[in-house]
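Q: Convert this sequence to structure tokens.
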Amino acid sequence: MRILLTGSKGQFAKSLQQVLVNEELTSLSHEQMDICKADIVNDLVESLKPDVIINTAAIRRPGECEKNPELAFSVNALGPRHLARACKKVGCILFHASTDNVFDGLKNSPYKENDIPNPISVYGTSKLAGELFIQNITEKYFIIRTGGLFGAEYSKDNDTNF
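A:
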């Protein structure tokens, strides 16, 4: 299986790289593929023709998103939009890493995938926008919402992970 992995320098991507060693894996960092630029995304996806794109690229620190909402929406919303369009064009599957921050946290029980999102931050709103773009552009997708990461691979800012 040909897999294209975005955000290759992040904690989640590094862990996935260890698991996917037997796959035909192309791991690209922000410097190699800026998902905010539609033409770059289209060109690379069209040339690589992956079966699956795993998108782990994101501006994930909520404080950074609040300080720079334009960047947050560019990476967390428009980036997935560009990836979804490219996936639709070549017929591949998009696996997108999102966040539980699409919810407000006020529910007194665990959230379910069909609960109505209600983000209360720029981070959550930008990630929800990315999800909505994906859902409305391509039919072949998976979205995972996670509240945190753990494992042997630590990110440079592991103070927010366990």
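The two ends are 31 Å apart (CA to CA).
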